[in-house]
Design brief:
By secondary structure, the chain is of the alpha/beta class. The protein folds into 4 domains: 54 residues, Orthogonal Bundle (Arc Repressor Mutant, subunit A), CATH 1.10.10; 55 residues, Arc Repressor Mutant, subunit A (Orthogonal Bundle); 272 residues, Nucleotidyltransferase, domain 5; 55 residues. Strands 4-3-2-1-5-6 form a 6-stranded mixed β-sheet, with helices on one face. The longest helix has 34 residues. The protein is elongated. InterPro entries: CenT-Element_Derived, DDE_SF_endonuclease_dom, HTH_CenpB_DNA-bd_dom, HTH_Psq.
Length: 513
Amino acid sequence: MSSQRRKAFTIEEKGAIICRLENGESNSCLAKEFGVGHSTISMIFKNKNRIKESFNSNVLKPKRLRKSRQENVDQALIQWFKNMRNKGIPISGPMLHEKANGFAARFGILDFNCSASWISRFKVRHNIVAGKIVGESSSVDQNSTTNWLISVWPNLRRQFFDDEIFNADETGLFYKLMPDKTLKFKGENCSGGKLSKDRITVMVTANMSGTEKKKLLFIGKSQKPRCFKGVKSLPVDYVNNRKAWMTSELFEKWLRDWDCDLVKKKKKILLLVDNCPAHPNVTDLKSITLAFLPPNTTSVLQPMDQGIIRSLKMNFRKNLVLKLINCLDANENHSSTKVTVLDAILMVNDAWNKMSQSTIHNCFKHAGFIESHNGLPIQISEHEFDKEDDIPLSLWSRNLNSDSLAAPEMWEDYVDIDSGLLTSEEPTDENIVQNISAKEQLESDGEEEVEEAPLPTAEEALKAAELLSRFVHSNIENDNLTIAMSSIHNSIRDCFYNKMKKQKQTKITDYLQ
């Protein structure tokens, strides 16, 4: 009688077996699945402490754990799994098996074999434990906001100071839009089509006290917009996506990068976000406690939606209108009035820097996050927000000789025109495959062809700095501004002299040759 060949388990397979046993699966089922005797499974479980220690060891882990050879299938499957988990849908092994084969077919991988051991290794790679996944209900009653503020929020808040409580939210932005084109864009959600190339997404994040405004995250379509040519640094973080939308991968990277920075600063925070598909429940964060707002309540419960984002857009659009009016008044050529992603970044960042601490704090109040002495949310009146005016729109109307554009409702429409823009997509199998495939291609430029204005020379910059410095000294009495202007002037002058030295050295070298 031929003896049965002994099966050799890898360390990850042993780890998966232990996890499944601990979560209620029977010894006999696992023995049958892996084609071994009951005693083999029992021996693995008996040695679980030693196996877990080896599995977590820095020595064994790199040697025995290996990447999936079908990485696209692996990436697509984990994205799909996270999307289902965020919806509260329990995922079984057969469901993973079926989905993996489906993704392999979509990627054109004909020799893919989704075995039980492949699924086990997949679970180990991504720390997935068998069992049901408990998620949020898709239906929310009318009292969900109040219930959350009374039953959930107090427990979260008592663990953190106001400076340590943050809210983050994305907003879509038509960065090229002028007031006279408002009707064309009204009601557009930008899920695709011609208008989608004129939008970007901005992630806005601040703490409850209003004392810390995190650097803005911009999501554009192009990996390297032409307008970035010659730019050494940006005042914001910039990433790209083929639809200029937030994705779960971009969100997780942004979150983990922030977590690393906080670890270095030895600071812990609470971050409140909505539960959209692009916000996965990222685990094992060291300094960030991630909490999700209840579904279908963000319009009233999310602080960013209570006036912070609107104030940001209002001031950006003032900057935008005034910039283009100045170009028209100066009779500059048509290319000077074109708005690039870089223009939008600089103007939105300027608006963000000018956002007052009181505006941010009041929006957290308005959302009900700051209680009165009796424990009830504070109600605030509209006058506590920053005042807005329609001066830029009046100037725009004057330049176009159109009184209708100066109407208050026109300014309201202009400020709110992109409030309904989509900032993420509902993941489908097709979208997941497209996004992963797109990573293998270098996206060129999503911007419209714009005649590039030549970069100013060091000599031109120095002359401009001298002119601006004279203007500040003769028209504005502000010591801080004078000091800042002097610092800028000196920096540009140093840059000019350094370039002059390099040019002289080059000429001498050329002569000696």
